[in-house]
Amino acid sequence: MNTSQEQAEQLFAQSSSEMQADHFDTAEALLVKALNMDPRLAEAHANLAWLLDRRGSVSEAVRHYELAIELQPDNARIHLNFGATLAELKFFHAAEAAYHKALLVDPTLPGTWCNLGALLAQNGRDDEAETMLGKALALDPAHVAAHFNLACLLLRKGRFEEGWHHLEFRDWYHPAEERLRCRRWKGQSLQDRVVLVMCEAGFGDMIQFCRYVAVLRAQGAAQVDVLSHPDLKPLLQTLDGVGDVFAMDDDTSASDWDYWVPVMSLPLYSGTRLDAIPAVIPYLQAPADRLVYWRQKIDQLSPRPGLRVGLVWHGNPAFENDAQRSLPSVQTLAPLWRVPGVQFFSLQKGNGEREVKRFQATQPMTDLAPDLKGFADTAAAIEQLDLVISVDTAVAHLAAALGKPCWLLLPAFMTDWRWLEERTDSPWYPQVMRLWRQPTGNDWAPVVAQVQAALQAWAQPVKPAN
């Protein structure tokens, strides 16, 4: 072995240590140096590809994966990671081929079966996907990602009892669990017990599942407290039967709970089936102190008569499927501007908020965002509207939980499990939520055309019969 090869391998070893310590920039620099000394170091190409993909340099990542595979075609993990990058790029056939190559080399890697199952589920091949995910779990019964992917598939198909079981293997709430001294609730008797419901995942998840506070009280719990995202605290204090509501950064050291439970475990231990979803609507209210302000403000902006419609067209850009679930621009909704008798209000915060000002001259919309300081304000504003039209984000859950009609625009690709399949209604929000689904691809035009026609029918004054 020559000196340059030795030095390259030493740099590769150092980079691996830096990757394990999450020092990704340092690791990348070391790998670049290693490959300059020895460009035939296959695993260095593979690790560099993973790092490049992680920071968004996907085309460069693909190049290094291809070099790694050329140098080491019998490395299943390289094929596996390459497949994941191709799937991220939505090169689905190429990703599937990469996963199959990984399985030919080593069929014992559960991660390959899991990724292949997820890919097939994303593309509507559900029976095959369930088989692949089952193989992953046969190899590793505790494989978190395989359980989660299978849970999403089963729940989307309405197979709730199986789906909740697999969802229970998620592990993202563990950091918060460390601060709690009480036992985890897993269906034990709650008679005269004090329970803490802990938030997890996103705002929409908490808004959807906080309804189970009332279910726990009905099961005999003496008190049900909630540990919440700080921004949701004022809103969750309006839940019927709720005890104390704490923000995540509040001091809870004096609390004495018998049990704690992550909020998304409540459907499992409450025995929720598709035909038995607890759905007493509304179950949230806007805080009273914000209602007065928003009633006066919107009455000034939009005197009656006239239909008041709130709009949200972008979700959190960090969400995995945001490129599909969010609209390309507020201009995608432009056909709605032609419906007479409607006053539109922007409830859009964050990504997309600037578009309201940019296109102000061409759209009849009032921007409420500057005064929306949190979910309490958003709830109070929604209470003054007749309808909310939204992409799949927390505001849609909020509107429906308040009992406000909500039209939800759903992507064809990776539609979230909670909206099930093919339905135009939601059993989670009966009578108030209407689902509008993309037929195929990423084309929102047919959806917006249908919404325009329905809005026209609603806004059109009813003529008295002769």
From TrEMBL:
<dbReference type="Pfam" id="PF01075">
    <property type="entry name" value="Glyco_transf_9"/>
</dbReference>
<dbReference type="InterPro" id="IPR011990">
    <property type="entry name" value="TPR-like_helical_dom_sf"/>
</dbReference>
<feature type="repeat" description="TPR">
    <location>
        <begin position="110"/>
        <end position="143"/>
    </location>
</feature>
<dbReference type="InterPro" id="IPR002201">
    <property type="entry name" value="Glyco_trans_9"/>
</dbReference>
<dbReference type="Pfam" id="PF13432">
    <property type="entry name" value="TPR_16"/>
</dbReference>
<protein>
    <submittedName>
        <fullName>Uncharacterized protein</fullName>
    </submittedName>
</protein>
<keyword id="KW-0802">TPR repeat</keyword>
<dbReference type="GO" id="GO:0016757">
    <property type="term" value="F:glycosyltransferase activity"/>
</dbReference>
<feature type="repeat" description="TPR">
    <location>
        <begin position="42"/>
        <end position="75"/>
    </location>
</feature>
<dbReference type="InterPro" id="IPR052943">
    <property type="entry name" value="TMTC_O-mannosyl-trnsfr"/>
</dbReference>
<dbReference type="InterPro" id="IPR019734">
    <property type="entry name" value="TPR_rpt"/>
</dbReference>
<dbReference type="Pfam" id="PF13414">
    <property type="entry name" value="TPR_11"/>
</dbReference>
